[in-house]
Amino acid sequence: MRLPAYPLITVDPFFSIWSRSENLYDAPTTLWCGIPKRLTGFVTVDGKKFRFLGKGKGAVIEQKDLVVTPYVTEYTFSNAAVSLNVRFWTPLTFADLHILSTPCSFIDYKLTVLDSTPHDVSLTLCVHEEFCYDRRAKQVEKKLVAAGDTTAARMGRTDQKPLSKSGDGVSADWGYFYLEGGRLSFGGSKGTALTSAFSFPEFTGSVTFGNILAYDDIDSILYFDTPLKALWHERFETIEAAIAYCRENHDMLLVKMQQQEDLLLSDAAAFGGAYQAILTAAARQVLAAHKLVRNKQGELLYLSKECHSNGCVNTVDVSYPAIPMFLVYKPELVKAMLTGIFAFARLPVWQADFAPHDIGTYPIANGQAYALKDELFRRASKKNVYKSRDFSIYQKKNQMPVEECGNMLIMAYAYYCRTGDDMQLLENFDLLEKWAAFLKKTGVVLENQLCTDDFAGHSEKNVNLAIKAVMGIACFAKICEALGKSQNDMQVAKDYAQKLSALAKENGYFRFNLDGAGSWSLKYNLIWDILFEFNLFDKALYRAESEQYKAQLNRYGVPLDSRADFTKSDWMLWAACLDDTGENIERFSKCIVRFLAETDDRNCFTDWFETKEPKERGMDHRSVQAGLWMPVLKAKISEKRREA
Length: 644
Hints:
This protein has 644 residues and is α+β, with helices and mostly antiparallel strands. Helices cover 33% and strands 23% of the residues. It has an eight-stranded antiparallel β-sheet with strand order 6-7-8-9-16-13-12-11. A five-stranded antiparallel β-sheet has the order 5-4-10-15-14, with no helix packed on it. Helix 8 packs across helix 10 (429-442). The chain is globular and about 80 Å long. It starts with 5 loop residues before the first strand and ends with a helix.
């Protein structure tokens, strides 16, 4: 499986390391956004040194194979004397949220002598000190520390200022990186790396061994001026204790990851090999775009970073496309995506009658950063947004009122549907009621405004956005029903759906905007009408929409709408689910796999790319790729319905 970039270490937005070449030794390893974070590795056989990891000078040991599964990237190298297998994986298990949060990642090695002749073999791994800072070199200190019954080498800036930087394509300027395994030292030409060495004199046969790389960020998120630590601190008193646990439980953790892989691939199998491949490409980057913490009230917060888009934290219209994966495997994390938004919406500064967009710029969650007036956004004062009582700090034109109201109502109801847990609905009913009222007041003939598909700018009378409003109102009706509250909102949703059908339909499908004759778009928001069985729209609409998508299909997918040739992978798969034959899921998945195989852009799995040429438009490493699990979610809901 060819990918534009290969995941190696995938923990969180500041500890997500990738290789941007087919051969592990042809490019330096980097943070997801391209900032150098070099890992270099060498195997020495009878005094001859060969590089297997990272860019550099000198001979390499030839790469023979590369296998990528959802949670493992595995390379095989060999020459006439030895074979070396190198496996990168992180225990990203939904079964244990503390382990999901633990910032420890494994590199496993298997060394085999091929010619039955004794050889002196050694392996060296170097972790360069640029892991410790954001681009510009800073003074770094290094030391050896105990980690249970083992030892780890540690490095970090001499001057530690946790949470001192926020933004999009940046790395942390704080925290400590650890390397465990082998004989540890401080190597490199100037002692600027943590070095691990393993030696096997007069060696024959085969041996397995490995390293653990870990990152202690000290504080993970500034949440309304309160520093929060990652969830793993609840289980492990120190990062050294976490490293020791991971070393002692390596085999158990690997089995859990393999079980999770088997489940993921089994769930995807019904939709074909191409669909399995795109889920494999997305799985780790989705999780590495989040941070899991707990607030002072004891509530979980699962906070995304809007990677390579604007760096916002907990963006509502990023959580919305991401929920399918989490509704399938860990609905509790969907609730944790919503908690911070509800909290911010209650602060005095948020005086709007619609839902917020975000709660800050990662990792500073001190209030919505999007739509701040330019002079405020540029100043450090944006860190204190939550303290303000002046809503005029925001620009109205850059808000997404219908988008975020619909998103919050749909997500809140979707979580309830999967779990039966109504606590969040009860605690936030007043906000949900206010946001539903906003959608009812707005109707389906929408003013010129932004939505999540703002790549081609604002749009007026946007039909897909109006569908979201209808779905939001219907979800609120079901929320009221679940809580025993009387209302007539489902009738409102039916009336609005009927009106929208009368205004938007052309050739059986819906236009992009109401007065845009000949226009069309991916109506991905319709999927909730099917999943929740609202039956607000005629099934003939789904068939007509699905046929239109096939008619507009290009080599790399279906365009997002008739304005341009680019698309979004997540929305393509949501729209594919309108086709009850399942053929569009397989068809569109093959297009995405073709893009991954043919693009020259060596970045993480982008969700925004051209459909006529294999070029990305931007936005890499985004959590929205969890939306690719929509076909699985639809199948799970259908299965549960049949069992009932």
